[in-house]
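User: These chains co-purify. Model them together.
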Amino acid sequence: MEMDFKIGVIVASAILLLICVYLDIKRKNKHWLAGRIACHTLLILSLALLAIPLQYSVKEKQLKNKITVITAGSNIDSIIKKESKVYYTDPSLRQILKSKAIYLPDLAYHLAENPSIKQLEVYGYGLAQTDLDKLDATVISFHPAPLPNGVVSCSWPALVQQEEILSVQGKYQNHGKSPIQLKLVGFGVDLDSATIGAQQNQTFTLKFQMRQKGKALLKLVALAKEDTVAKEVIPVQSIPKTPIGVTILSSFPSFEYKFLKDWWYAQSYPVALRSRISKDKFSTDFLNRNSFNLQTLTANQLQKEDILMLNQQEFDQSSAAEQQTIWQAVAKGLGLIIWLDDPNPTGRIEKNVKRVDQLTADKVADLQLANTQLRLSGISTDLKWFLQLQKGQQALISNSRGQTVATEELYGAGKIVYTTLQNSYQWLLNGDKESYANYWTTLANAAARKKRNAIDFNSINQFLTINQKATFQIVTQDAKVPAVNYLKKQVNIIQNLLFNNQWQSQIWPTNYGWQTLNINGENKDFYVFNSSDWKSVRLAQTLKNNFDYTNHYNKRNSDQTIEEINSVKEVSKTWFLIIVILSASFLWFENKHYARK
Amino acid sequence: MKEKRYINKLKQQWITIYLIQGLAICVGFTLLIHSLVSYFWVPNMFIDLCSFVIAALLFLWRRPLWQINDAWAVRYLDTQFPILEDSASLLIKENHELSTLAQLQLEKISNVLPQLQLTRGASKKLAIGCSCLLIGIVSMLTFSSLANKTSNSKLTENHQHIDAKTETISPQIEDYQIIIQPPAYTQKPKRTQQQFSLKVEIGATVTWEINTNTSLKSLYVIFNDKEKLNLTPSNAKATHWRFSKKITTPGFYQLVIDGNKSDLYQIEVIPDHPVVIKITQPKPQTTIYIGQTPKVELYANLTDDYGIREAFISATMASGKGESVSFTEKRLSFETTINNQKSLQLKKRIDLKSLGMKPGDELYFFIEAKDNNGQSSRSDMYSVAIVDTAELMSMAGMTSGVSLVPEYFRSQRQIIIDTEKLLSDKANITPDEFKKRSNNLGIDQKLLRLRYGKFLGEENETQIGGDDEHHEGDGHDHKGEKFGDVQALMDKYAHKHDIAEDATFFEPEIKQQLKAVLNEMWKSELNLRTYKAQEALPFEYKALRLLKDLQQKSRAYVAKTTIKTTALKMEKRLTGELEQIVAPSRTAQMEVSDKSKQELKILLSLLSIHQNGKPFNGNEKALLQAGEKEMIAAAATRPASFLSALRSLRKLNNQNPPQQKDLESVANAIYRIIGKEIPKPTANNAGSSKKLATIYFNNLKNKN
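Assistant: Joint model of the two components:
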């Protein structure tokens, strides 16, 4: 069929050419005869070549033992033009590539079949991690695509305690010409926002105080002016706060202890207060807990407490045995908070801290939390000393001049917190509950004995995706095999070779959204993303994986032999079109020129 | 010469005409552009300027004014007036250049000249200019009025838009009307509306008139989901219902027609604020010194949202000292008549003397005002004090205690006495004498100032009455200088500071006050020296008062005490019996009765989970109902922000599957009801693998 068409074209052109030449010769006027004949010949020849493509073969040098693999994000046309034989592994590219490239369902299998292939030319975002894992150290020459437009990395804690701050942090690559507004949206409210400048790769932090109890789906929305560029899901879960049990010992009754006790009581947390009212006489309070003997401290009792608070004088007054008990308990994990009173050079506590005398008399102290830089409202107090940080100490509370008011230090498995502020109750008297709560929460959180979960449950993948393998790490208290159920079916688990209380389980989620894994009767929720969620992050991750792979394996040089391949190339039709136009215009010009004469 | 002047005049006239025309055209064009721009976009000064410049350039290009010269004038005359016989050019030529014939011709035409109408066609040009200007002005006026109209109509549209919120009305209601009778104090007329959502003044009486298309069995209204109002029909067919209620609190209501609940309609209340009083003069604390007129000018601004009924000054006078202070209260009224104005500018001159105030007395006052609803409000307390001269003059402070500066102090008092004496003598003495005495007092004041200056280490004028430099022939003996005495030579030229002997040790505060004293003395001296003894008096008093304060301050008083303590018996110390002292103990359990917040938090999570359209199950519906209770309470106080959420919540309760819009609206409301939480301490998580951590920890410990 094609041959017939070619012959038809040639015959028709030949006839046309003959007629034209004949007419040229027959014309009376022999003006520019040779030129006219040449032009007619060129014109008709070019017309014929427009219909029949002109092909020629060239010899190309090519690496013999390599193949080219196209992945998403590559400039497909230019690669296909450059390379004679191109492969692809991603089935989603089938629509675009169709007949242009060859589909490899299993790259590793193909490589095993063709052991001569020693190198892969990979274009685009790169091969999937699963493919890379199977490559067996084949050298990859990676031609990466630019970072995708959008969120390229993002992370947040999956579990946050109630009323705590959730912070979503990540990086945004903005290729666009207008700035992007990133918004954390949830509960019909814009919770926080950040702006990414035009054509910039910027980090962002979005914060939100957990107000719900349980699971929630927030959204990260990227807006360019008014248009929504991206909308990603952020699943979060809140877990209840772990109560802290406190015992307060004071050498004299004071507002400081009374207010602290009441505040602790109002949180529904257990608190015991013992304050010395006379020699060996104490007034005791047991709030939210059963009463016990507080006359003397026992190691047993301290083991049950999370924090022991006492003032320096009380500590120094207690017997040596009692002091020993306290230190031992702290070494085992008890938190100790100490109010520093007047210096007692002979006392044990005095040796741990170094005081700096307050020289300028501040009537009002402006304190701030060292870890969050949160400023507390000013309280009227006469701080006589500040603390100079010793080796192994960390500042917790400081004033506006950077002088330390409270410090923490490690002692064994426990923590010791020292504070010089004696009248934090002033905040409550001023009606500023928030500053008071912030102050004591900071001290208590730093000191409190750490709690352990019965079951620890973690997902290894950051973005669990539908129809992809999900691997979970489970840590239990003992080596008893936990019963794990998913969708009411038992899931098999693998025990860790080194730690007999660590386990791994794998599932293939087939639905997206919240899912539940039941471990020993305890429900653990996790979120499975749809395959379209967080695409840019996953592409950026693929890029990184491929870079890591090439960095790791390409150090070894591969032997490259060069092979000559004949490849057929086509002369572009534009050239013929130009010839047609030029010769036609010559003929037209000749006619005009002659007519004028 | 005459001809030259003639030509010049002609040129000037035409230039003026063209200038006027050009200006009129430019202004007209600018106005046109301005009106167009401000109608379609925003008025812009830059565009106005540009259009003016463009118009001006165009005009100058078309008619170059600088080309109106002699040649032009000649051409003009020749073309316009045939009578000149094309000889106008002779007018600009010098006489000696002209031939005899030309001179004759010149004479001929110069006789014709004055009769000519010089500015022929000028009126037409001016008319063109004026018409341009007119077009500009007319366009300006029409477009601005158009703009006003459209903005007004936009406003009204908006207003109607707000009012005409989509209200779903039960199908049984054929027609309804709501009559709002605002309370009397607002002085607003009765109004009716065709809308169930209400926004009424507090205390307004609202009457609903509802006509139904069928006779109803029952119709009642529920306010805030609590208060139920059963209605009785006003006609026998039970199709006309009428009821009224006085609205005092915000909230919402719904109609229940034959058992079917209608939509929720909000009731917003416009509160009546009390009168706002702002006193612009005097300052909160005023002191009147001797010599100043004992009068206070009081200026105040009063504003209220509906009207002020009355306003007055409540003044309290405190006189006497110590325990014998007596108070007298007075009510002063303003001269202005107060008759329900919305804002008032009040003025009052309080004459302290006529109130019977004496030196040393104090006046406290505030303004009290009542609005026409009977709500009263008052301003801050202001006080005016008259300085007591008698106390200043008393020697009480000096006779006892350590006086730092007694001799100088007396002088200041003396100056005051002398000044007062001078003033009382003024009528009897000659002006020259007055001036002389005033000047002398000024000198005294200066001396005093210099003496005090010493305490501050002031230099230069250290020698009282003396000069800083020695003069030739000043009577001093300069022979004392010894040749070769380096010290003496240096003293002569050196400017010595910091002589230890002269150093004064004062607290910075005292120095500050001393400076203030000197300042007052300066002013007093200035006035005395310029013969204004009367004006000098207040400064003198002030200086005296400050000195007295200073003197009081530098005294330290320690009362004598006689305490007899019994000798301590060291052996009995700390041996008290403590058996009687009991050890108090208390136990308590915190009971959190209000679990609503916890329920709301769970509900918030629930709403987030159900965004995928999953219907609520029975337990979850119970939670929704618990949330509804909270929402009703919130909507009752702030219907504008919570009523729509309450509607959505009810929809969620009834509809399956839940709508995204309702979920978000309810979640938003609950999120706001929960509000920001105060932090609470919590134990950190140490992970579950107790074993590994313990082994690691123990290993570390052993290594140490």
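Chain A touches chain B through 70 residues (CB under 8 Å).
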